[in-house]
Specification:
The chain has 210 residues and is mostly helical. The protein has 2 domains: 64 residues, Homeodomain-like (Arc Repressor Mutant, subunit A, Orthogonal Bundle); 136 residues, Tetracycline Repressor, domain 2 (Orthogonal Bundle). The protein has 10 helices and no strands. α1 packs across α2 and α1 packs across α6. The protein starts with 7 loop residues before the first helix and ends with a helix. The N terminus is likely disordered.
């Protein structure tokens, strides 16, 4: 007779795996039907669990929706040595991080109409308390970080000095966020959008170089 010993770690791993599975299935539902169009019953049926079992992992639909947004509706977060990273290297890091982020959001197994992604953002603004304020803070923090990288690039004579660092930093953010238009409105693939981003950043750098 074989005895199976379930350690605390194995139980936690199973709980985490189940939670991730629920989040992934709910992501597809919210993306295709919107927040209002998805019920707990829909989610329960999609994951093959009773409502009671579902509530064991998430308090309610809003709680699950927040978990979906936290996993899939993320903004780029480049980790960089602000004082020593060349602007040219920073451009590469931006492209790599956004590519990774988009591969996560637009996973091949997830089927949806691209414009639904805009609906999900709208749903997050309405049903995720603090989401708008969090993203506004993100934009300001990233603007300051990029401005500092640009200032250091000027000091080391990597790029011209006759530029407004904050304006250029906000341009960087605008270009990155413009990827949504390429993916959703122009229906570009992730690889096509990333290629365009790389070309845009490289062009800006060529114009800035001393």
């Amino acid at each position: 007779m074989v005895l199976y010993l379930h350690t605390k770690r194995s139980v936690c791993n199973n709980m985490s795996s189940t939670r991730d599975y629920i989040i992934d299935k709910a992501y597809e539902l919210f993306l295709n039907k919107s927040y209002e169009g998805v019920s707990i019953s829909d989610i329960s049926e999609a994951v093959g669990m009773t409502k009671g079992a579902l509530y064991h992992h998430f308090t309610n639909k809003e709680d699950l929706f927040k978990a979906v947004i936290d996993k899939y509706l993320v903004f780029p977060n480049v980790q960089v040595d602000i004082e020593n990273t060349l602007l040219s290297k920073f451009n590469e890091l931006i492209v790599d991080e956004i590519h990774r982020m988009l591969r996560n959001m637009f996973a091949p197994h997830v089927k949806f109409i691209p414009i639904h992604y805009i609906t999900m953002i709208s749903d997050a603004l309405r049903h995720y308390p603090g989401f708008k304020e969090e993203k506004e803070q993100y934009i300001e923090e990233k603007t300051q970080m990029i401005s500092k990288i640009i200032e250091n690039a000027i000091k080391r004579n990597e790029i011209r000095s006759d530029i407004n660092t904050e304006t250029l930093a906000r341009l960087y953010l605008s270009i990155a966020m413009g990827l949504a238009g390429n993916l959703i409105i122009k229906n570009y693939s992730v690889d096509e959008s990333i290629s365009l981003l790389r070309d845009q950043l490289n062009q800006i750098y060529q114009l800035l170089k001393v």
